[in-house]
Amino acid sequence: MQQGKFVTFEGVDGTGKTTQSQLLGRSLESEGLDVLLLREPGGTVISEKIRDILLDASQSHMTAETEVLLFEAARAQIVREVIKPALERGTWVICDRFMDSTVAYQGYGRGLDLEVIDKLNAFAVGETKPDLTILLQLPPQGLAERLEKRHELEAADRIDGESESFRAEVDRGFRALAAREPERFRCIETQGTKEETAGLVLELVRRVLS
Ligand code: TYD
Predict the structure, then answer these.
(1) How confident is the model at residue 142 (pLDDT cuts 50, 70, 90)?
(2) How high is the pLDDT of residue 163?
(3) What's the chain's average pLDDT?
(4) What is the pLDDT averaged over residues 85-99?
(5) Which one in 64, 165, 183, 202 has a CA-CA gap of 20 to 30 Å to 56?
């Protein structure tokens, strides 16, 4: 049996990762592939409980060290309980955020030691690294507008309620990651409609993974 492929979406809050994960999942399914859509943190009972703790806006005193360990704990669980077995039975796994978010948010955003984060990520995921990571990027003005619209509709969680400078650091982190691993990371500008972006994503996935 052929291994499934592992595709992750990354980017700062408000770049449309969730929509694009879903649209890619639908396209691949219509081609007859078995697809599993996931998001991080979450995806198992244990990881969802950890997610609730992580995103609880009332817990503003959580330390950055606690935060990173909780993200990695949630990840260690979903990798072994869900992602690895799915890939082994030939399912394609699409995950809305994964290990790179920890480098960008807890490393660049919170300022934790990047080498420590690389080690924690390696411990949490083992051999289960993404085959392809799609970094969705918006021009700065577009991003501010999208986030504003989103925050009018829903309350910010503990992490996406952070400041503009935090968000700029996270963005810098993603760009640094993309430069560090250009084979795995591919960037897509999300300036067009969501259908246009979905077309670019599908074309990229076909080109890189088939
Ligand atoms: P979520 O509501 O899923 O946000 P989004 O739709 O933007 O993905 O919340 C996840 C939040 O957790 C998001 O603000 C990014 C943050 N995060 C980290 O800080 N580190 C991580 O390792 C991961 C996976 C997410």
Answers:
(1) low
(2) 85
(3) 93
(4) 98
(5) 165
Region 6-209: CATH code:
3.40.50.300
| Residue 35 identity | V
Measured in whole angstroms, the distance separating CA 58 from the mean position of its chain's CA atoms is: 24
CB 38 within 8 A of CB 94: yes
pLDDT above 90: residue 116: yes
Name the residue of 70, 75, 94, 105 to mutate for ligand 1: max ligand atoms within 8 A of Cβ: 105
Among 137, 114, 117, residue whose Cα is nearest residue 185: 137
* 45/77 Cα distance (integer angstroms): 9
Half-sphere exposure of 38 (CA within 13 A, CB side): 30
**Predicted model pTM:** 0.94
CB 136 within 8 A of CB 16: yes
